[in-house]
Amino acid sequence: MPRTTRPRKGAARGGKRAPQAARPPPPEPEPVTPDGPRYLYGIVRATAALELGRIGVGTVPTQVYALHESGLAALVSEAPGRVVDPTRAHLLGHQRVTEHLLREHTVLPAAFGTVLASEAQVRDLLRTAHDALAGVLEALEGKVEMGLKVLWHREHLVQRLLLEDAQLARRDDEPEAEHEQRLASAVEDRAGRDMRALLEGLRPRAVALREHPPVGERMLLNAAFLVERTGLESFEEKVRSLAARSDTYAFRFTGPWAPYSFVDVRLGPRDEDAVGT
Question: Angle CA(160)–CA(161)–CA(163) in degrees, nearest 5?
Fold first, then answer.
């Protein structure tokens, strides 16, 4: 009995291959209208066209593009409104754009939620604040921000100090409240000295340092460092070295980021006096 075979998938009966359906062309990006509010992500030095694609703020990510004036480029997209709420989608969109820019540019970042009335107002800002903006970008050239947070379990440090210093134990004639106060003072002093030593160890490897208020009861240090890109490896090695010396503290090391902590950018129309480092 002759053996029968089934036609291969994608082939027509009779031995002829079925024609493949043509792939539809990729959708054209929606046109960006020149009117209406513009969300500003940051400013870089550039003269060539910059098209970042649909990665900007919005429930549906918006098209991000550049407006150029005299060697400066402002990265913008259509804004969801005059006020942009700090929702997860909006925050992630803002972060995506700045991270993309940071790969190839020195970035003067705009604060989250910066909205200007129109493209014309963005261009007006680039013209009227040109010298101030260019000066900040020059100061930031080749630098990025690194973040370091240090957390602790207070009781862990208490136990370590009691093991290291027998005089911190409660004396027979010492009221409990006085002992607790004496021990708390010793713990605060030790934590403060450790954080100062940590900052002094990292300061020589950074261009600048900013300390922010700690967040929550467990955070001892909330610091930002402005670091040369060429020195990132050395800086990271120093952080790892300092972290390895202590099992009392937990280190959270992040970056590189756009240098938000080292610029004061309140960009608005004819607002050149509100830009500085």
Answer: 65
SS3 string of the chain? Answer: CCCCCCCCCCECCCCCECCCCCCCCCCCCCCCCCCCCEEEEEEEECCCCCEEEECCCCCCCCEEEEEEECCEEEEEEECCCCCCCCCHHHHHHHHHHHHHHHCCCCCEECCCCCEECCHHHHHHHHHHCHHHHHHHHHHHCCEEEEEEEEEECHHHHHHHHHHHCHHHCCCCCCCHHHHHHHHHHHHHHHHHHHHHHHHHHHHHHCCEEEECCCCCCCEEEEEEEEEEHHHHHHHHHHHHHHHHCCCCEEEEEEEEECCHHHCEECCCCCCHHHEEC
pLDDT in tens, 24-41: 554 444 455 557 999 999
pTM above 0.70, yes or no: yes
Residue 236: how many CB atoms within 10 A of its CB? Answer: 15
Dihedral sign of CA atoms 202, 203, 206, 212 in order: positive
Residues 6+ apart with CB under 8 A from 231: 205
In contact, 141 and 232? CB cutoff 8 Å: no
Residue with tokens 């991270």: 99
The residue type found at 25 is P
Band of residue 9 on the pLDDT scale cut at 50, 70, 90:
very low
Closest CA to 195 of 238, 131, 159, 152: 152
Distance of alpha carbon 141 from alpha carbon 45, whole angstroms: 10
pLDDT of 146: 97
